[in-house]
Amino acid sequence: xPFTFAGINEYVSxxxxxxxVCGASDVLSEFPSALHWISxxxxxxxxxxxxxxxxxxxxxxxxxxIERALVCYSDARTQLLGLVTxxxxxxxxxxxxxxxxxxxxxxxxxAFASHMKMSGKRFFKxxxxxxLQRLNVLYNAVKHASAGSEQPIWxxxxxxxxxxxxxxxxxxxxxxxxxxxxAAAVCRGADAHEG
Length: 195
Prior knowledge:
Layout: H1 5-11, H2 14-18, H3 37-48, H4 53-85, H5 92-119, H6 131-143, E1 154-155, E2 159-161, E3 166-168, H7 169-188
Antiparallel strand pairs: 1-2, 2-3
């Protein structure tokens, strides 16, 4: 027997039934070699000496976080598509998508944090309202979620929300693409050397 929206709203969460479309794009398909980036770094390191030892560990961590952010975003999109097209009266796809979006946000922010530390530059200032600053707010909401809160972040048709910030899927995807282009460059050996 299928559940009703009223039952889901009352006993699970009204946020599940509020999502009606999947606004997330297939960003992973734009980077077909992404699942091989870590192998690429290892092979370039062994046979070409780049990235240099002084930045190798950073390069591996940076690329690992971006690869994971892309994969989690793709998995979230798959679950969200299932929710809005096939499983309207189920809540598990929503919560699976939410978990994958949370993981993607965490890995994406950690990649930016790693890049900021390596470059010595800040990419946002305080509460400047930039997409990266709002990603930081979502990252912290996930990181510091209390057991009693309903959801530290949630999904809407437009993007991801927390009590303090909203980031659209378009903005999130632009941050993903920015880091993915950098990760691809690192894997090719560009910007992965000293100097």
